[in-house]
Amino acid sequence: MELLGLIGYGLSCLAYLIFFLLLLASRQQSLSGTLTRVLGAVLCISALISCWQLYQGFSLLYVLYFEGVKNFLVTILILGVKLRSPSFKELIRHKETHQYLAVVTVLVFVSAFSIVTRQNFVWVFISFMALNLWPLVLLEQVFRNAQKRARWAVWPFVFGLGSMLVFDFVIFAQGALINQLDFNFWYLRGYLSAAMMPFILLSSKRIKNWSSDLFVSRDVVFYSSILMLSGAYLLLLALAGYVIRFLDGQWSELLSIAFMCLGLLVLFAVLFTQNFRNRIRVFISKHFFANRYDYRLEWLNLIAALERDNSQDIYESACNAISEVLQLDGCIYLQLNNVSRLEVMNFGQLKPDARSREQLDGLVSYFQTQNWIIDLAEFQVSPDIYKGLQLDEAPLINDNIEILVPVNFQQQLTGVFAMTRPANKGLLNWEDRDFVFALTKQLGNYLSLQEIQQQLSQTQQFAVFHRMSAFVLHDLKNIQAQLSLINANAEHHKGNPEFIDDVFDTVESASLRLQKVVRQLANKSMEKIKEPKQQVEIKSLLQDAIKLANMNRPQVILDCQPGLYVYADRERFAGVMMHLIENAQQASNPQDSVQLIGKKQENRLILSIRDKGCGMTQSFIRDKLFTPFSTTKGNAGMGIGVYEARQFFEENSGLMSVQSDVGKGTTFTIEMSLSEYQEIGYNNHGKIINC
């Protein structure tokens, strides 16, 4: 047998010498190519040392030292291929390389301590098992991470190195169990190593830069984890076998083998149990892997689907969007109403009958307590998963309703999405459920916000109506006040011709203003109808306003320069000035007077309304004076007169300011741009011209 081993290692030495020379001639400059050439040299030297040990008979420990170096280089090479490191410096800096170096350091110290203190090789064999398990896991990851077009180049490399590593793992596992190597296997290592050389050489030629196209796969992590757990379990078995042998003396070898066989049976039973494999897969997917769904892209797809939908029905839009993203054949939304029943908001392709609606109404309490997606196919197979759910699923399935998803807004159940099964999906797994929950959560928020927007729009429409009513009521109030003044003074002045003329002027003004009110109501707009602007002489406008105002006390004293003109709506201007004068009169004592002053300052008209009344606080002026529906008159005032006045002057490029002291009086100051006087006439066609 020793001669057979000598020939095998000799062949291996010759094979890897040829391997090294061929790679040296290829002159690959990548890190992995360099490491492969070094590995070829080390494999050649390792076979030479093993051959020399068999010929000279010196200690096998020296061979094991070089086997450790070979194993180290194999692992570094596989790490370089997996991590695609461009340089040795980058490879050494990587976190995974640091982890491997730390483990190697610990195993070296453990092995050295075991040999020095006890001359015991069990820990050496266990260390070699661990060192062979690590590159095996890496090889499995490299192969499964490779794209399909790259696997044809990778598989010879994986097969060649993997075969040698598995063979060594079995040898050292048996050595750890019985505290010695089986030399029958040891002599065969040379032949296996030589036979694997063509496979490694083939991959070195197929992969030009030793950097295959890799991607991260869930199955890779799963199978790698299974392989790692299996290797760790075998290490524990080997350690337990050593303990049994150490404790039981002469029966130790038999007990160790029996224990090893029993342990392997347990391992195979566990690994082939579907429930155990599913638990590992879910645990890995949740904690060690990215989500299957790219939520950023799916969120953008959902937004795009909502934007593309032309339906005016928000519920139809939401169902169309989720149907597009999940590739559904049908979807409906059922909203929870005030009597805790689910009301169908859109039918589409799903039309639940009375029996289905009865079953859906019975799910309200379940969704309020559990908030869990119901997969009716899963419920048929495993009803125990849905604890506390009482449901006759047959009517729903007959109506093509297969999945029910609760929708919550602010932690309250608002509705349910009922849908068909997504395309190419079996029973929903945990990740499918998370994804569907995320979509329906966003759509639930969308529906709730759209419903709030509709309610707000209706509220705004009512607010527009109330505001229009307030302006109309304010105008009617002013007209009623003018007509009341006529009645109040008719008894004393009905024989006065000037009074009669004023009455007709007032009635005409009231009639015009009533016409505007009627047009305002017919227009159904909150904005006041704007009349065409005209040239207004300020003094005459103020005189007309004072005639009406002086029917009450205190009297208004006018001091205005003649010949001052502005462009404005005369009727609105007169109404605004009348309101400001009335406010000043109402704030003053009857024995006092109100001053109305108009003057020119550069090219600006300055109007001042001064009273000696009660005044206003600065906080009221700042916060409430120009705010609609704020008044100091109680129920007697509307609180929109001053707001309307400022709005009028701002529309005509003017300003209105207020100065007031409590107990001393108030001054309203108005500034407007003056216009040059232009006489207005008519041409032969009846159109207005400037003369």
UniProtKB/TrEMBL annotation:
What is the protein's given name?
Answer: histidine kinase
Q: Which Pfam families match?
A: GAF_3, HATPase_c
Q: Which InterPro entries match?
A: GAF, HATPase_C_sf, HATPase_dom, His_kinase_dom, Sig_transdc_His_kin-like_C, XrtA/PrsK
Q: Does the keyword Cell cycle apply?
A: no
Key word Nucleotide-binding present in the record? Answer: yes
Annotated SMART domains: HATPase_c
Task: Give the source species.
Answer: Thalassotalea litorea
Task: Please give the catalytic activity noted in the UniProt record.
Answer: ATP + protein L-histidine = ADP + protein N-phospho-L-histidine
